[in-house]
Recover the amino acids of this structure.
């Protein structure tokens, strides 16, 4: 029995993203498609999202254009593919403050947002540094932080310090400090509601971009497979590897249960379809009684 | 003016208490981007002015982002001593640098309205910082943070109004704010 349905919804993509951005050290290995997605979790009377994408206007559009993002669609259009509206969403877990994850809070007027406190405090610190250290601010839109001020005033922003269990029934938040960003986190869904779940899904945010981060050739160190960090880390690759190990241990080392949201090959692992907008809808699992949205 | 028309006019101009337009100062209005004006008019003076604005945009973006982050943390941690943090001191230094850059700008004909928006963005950053520094007293924290938040948002609205895509920012879109008090009246 499953409490929650989980879908990964593509809302835009980068057609040719350099592979070394996805996979640490993959220099001169060409380009891969990089879907931009968010995750919908529906069940037990809740509609939750893992990240909210970005809004294709203001500085968010500038960043999107700079990263070569195409075919952006708004949440109303994207969520309709699974029979939902942005107003249905009551909870949003923000894995980190990059513009493509935290850049559209205003489109979810009834949601409460969860983010690691460290993610905000360290971005504030980074913004205070001299221009020559500006690299540490890459992909952050200060406008998103400004919008966070209103969320906080409305008591719709919750900062988390480390792990938070059962933020919704059977759903936990886990911190990965100083990894992809200063205060990244992932979301764990124990879909049978049990503490020692046999039906766990990990929604990895950008701690894992693609399956190759979980299972890459280890020839360089004479092992068959090894974890390989994502290409972008303001923290350390070591912390990314340690977070990956913890995520994998939560799912009993069944790699397909760690869901990367920048992965085109989700289509090979899960049922999916392409919407009329040309964006993929991937069905990770279905709650009891929920009808498929892809068949 | 008839009484009903007067009432309509007054209602149309009345803002919600949390609307950034209740604060005094110039209206955050879209203004021609100096880069585009320079091209259109073939003006070297405007081109020079546009180039000198770029570091000002960047400074203001970072000041606003910092203040916004500090406002969030102050509210969620109920800490008053924000003004004592090293980050705030760095923010102050960046503010001083911005003030110098603004005062040394030579504003050519056609860029006056643009300069008004930049000055207003800076001024609201300053008042937000001042409110932070006054928070260590006994005034209710929530009210002080509401004030800070309004000023930060107003500063951001002016910065958006003054910024062009070429300078790293897009033109302002008030669809989700209350600047005209129409989009989110509910």
């Amino acid at each position: 029995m499953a409490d929650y349905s989980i879908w990964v919804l593509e809302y835009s993509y980068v057609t040719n993203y350099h592979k070394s951005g996805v996979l640490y050290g993959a220099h001169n290995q060409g380009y891969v498609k990089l879907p931009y997605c968010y995750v919908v979790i529906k069940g037990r009377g809740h509609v939750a999202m893992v990240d909210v994408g970005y809004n294709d206007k203001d500085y968010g559009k500038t960043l999107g254009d700079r990263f070569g993002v195409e075919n952006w669609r708004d949440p109303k259009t994207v969520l309709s593919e699974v029979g939902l509206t942005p107003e249905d969403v009551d909870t949003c877990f923000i894995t980190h403050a990059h513009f493509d994850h935290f850049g559209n809070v205003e489109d979810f007027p009834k949601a409460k947002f969860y983010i690691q406190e460290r993610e905000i405090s360290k971005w504030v610190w980074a913004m205070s540094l001299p221009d020559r250290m500006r690299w540490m601010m890459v992909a952050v839109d200060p406008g998103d932080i400004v919008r966070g001020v209103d969320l906080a005033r409305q008591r719709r922003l919750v900062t988390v310090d480390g792990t938070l269990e059962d933020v919704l029934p059977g759903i936990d938040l886990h911190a990965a400090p100083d990894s992809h960003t200063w205060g990244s986190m992932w979301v764990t869904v124990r879909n049978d509601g049990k503490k020692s779940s046999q039906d766990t899904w990990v929604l990895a945010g950008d701690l894992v971009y693609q399956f190759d981060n979980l299972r890459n050739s280890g020839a360089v160190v004479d092992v068959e497979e090894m974890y390989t960090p994502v290409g972008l880390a303001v923290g350390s690759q070591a912390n990314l590897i340690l977070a990956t190990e913890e995520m994998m241990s939560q799912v009993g080392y069944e790699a397909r249960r760690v869901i990367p949201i920048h992965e085109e090959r989700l289509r090979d692992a899960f049922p999916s379809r392409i919407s009329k907008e040309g964006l993929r809808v991937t069905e990770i699992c279905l709650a009891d009684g929920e009808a498929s949205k892809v068949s | 003016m008839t009484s009903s028309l007067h009432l309509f006019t007054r209602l149309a101009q009345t803002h919600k208490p949390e609307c950034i337009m209740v604060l005094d100062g110039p209206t955050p209005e879209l203004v021609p981007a100096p880069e585009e004006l320079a091209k259109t008019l073939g003006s070297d003076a405007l081109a020079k002015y546009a180039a000198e604005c770029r570091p000002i945009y960047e400074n203001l973006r970072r000041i606003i982002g910092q203040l916004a982050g500090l406002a969030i943390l102050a509210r969620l941690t109920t800490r008053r001593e924000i003004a004592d943090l090293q980050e705030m001191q760095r923010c102050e230094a960046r503010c001083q640098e911005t003030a110098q850059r603004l005062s040394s700008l030579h504003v050519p004909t056609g860029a006056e309205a643009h300069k008004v928006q930049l000055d207003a963005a800076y001024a609201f950053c300053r008042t937000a910082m001042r409110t932070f520094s006054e928070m260590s007293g006994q005034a209710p924290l929530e009210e002080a943070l509401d004030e800070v938040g309004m000023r930060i948002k107003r500063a951001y609205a002016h910065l958006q109004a003054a910024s062009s895509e070429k300078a790293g920012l897009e033109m302002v879109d008030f669809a989700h704010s209350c600047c005209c008090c129409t989009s989110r009246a509910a």
